[in-house]
Amino acid sequence: MERHLLAIGYGYSARALTRRLLAQGWRVTGTTRSADRAAAMVSDGVTPLVWPGADLGTAVMGASHILLSAAPDAAGDPVLTAAPEVFDRPLPGLRWLGYLSTTGVYGDHAGGWVDETTPLTPGTTRGHQRVAAEAGWQALAAAQGLPLHIFRLAGIYGPGRGPFRKVQDGTAQRIVKPGQYFSRIHVEDIAQVLGASINRPEPGAIYNVCDDDPSPPQDVLTHAAELLGVDLPPVVPIDEAQMTPMARSFYAESKRVRNDRMKHELGVQLAYPTYREGLAALLAEHLRSGD
């Protein structure tokens, strides 16, 4: 059977995976809500599907592998809400189904360690929505025998999503909350993990996708400034920081996420095991593009 990935929600992570698969001779179809975005997808080598609107069921039936990366909202998971019948049936040609979730499902652990066996105790609205979406896909997979794999992603960074521009123009702030830890993952390592799972499927598996060094956020900005050779961003205590509600919600939870299962079961060796390697790789991209 042809290797054909359907990416429902052709976003940042799906695009990184797509680049790898196209180089290996795959065919890729991706959904988007925007006709303008569809034209850009064609230039990526991807067949666009404007959805809602187009026939998602036919695309699902024609795919050997499916990546679900559309985020849930207050109404629930967009696929399970808008087109539940598409997956509520046997799909004998489907070899792999991946769902991109978030480590936010674990909630706050006051800087303690979590792994895939840790109970899900989300503390934010987004975390609760992800827990519900995971449960919905797990129930559907159990009912229909779908080869579901769940990937709980840490904070994503990569080309176009680095800290250098704000550090360089002086708008960055080192917001300090004692005991605060974030886990991160470079987008190319996300693509590597997804590719490894596709090559070594284990239906029902759940993987944390993060690097080896959960760190306070101010440490990352300090390192970025040192790489650029500019003054360090000012230190601002959390209770004095001006942030959007979404940004502040990230500081409401602190945890360090283990990635042992990802490494041992999938044989992954991270290209960017800490933010230091990741930022070093992004610096040349930043200097070239200004992102």
TrEMBL record:
A Pfam family matched in the record: Epimerase
Segments forming a coiled coil: none
Source organism superkingdom: Bacteria
CDD domains: SDR_a4
InterPro entries cross-referenced by the UniProt entry: Epimerase_deHydtase (IPR001509), NAD(P)-bd_dom_sf (IPR036291)
Key word NAD present: yes
The NAD-dependent epimerase/dehydratase domain, residue ranges: 99-210
Transport listed as a keyword: no
Alphabetical keyword list: NAD
Protein's UniProt name: SDR family oxidoreductase
Organism: Gemmobacter lutimaris
Lineage: Bacteria, Pseudomonadati, Pseudomonadota, Alphaproteobacteria, Rhodobacterales
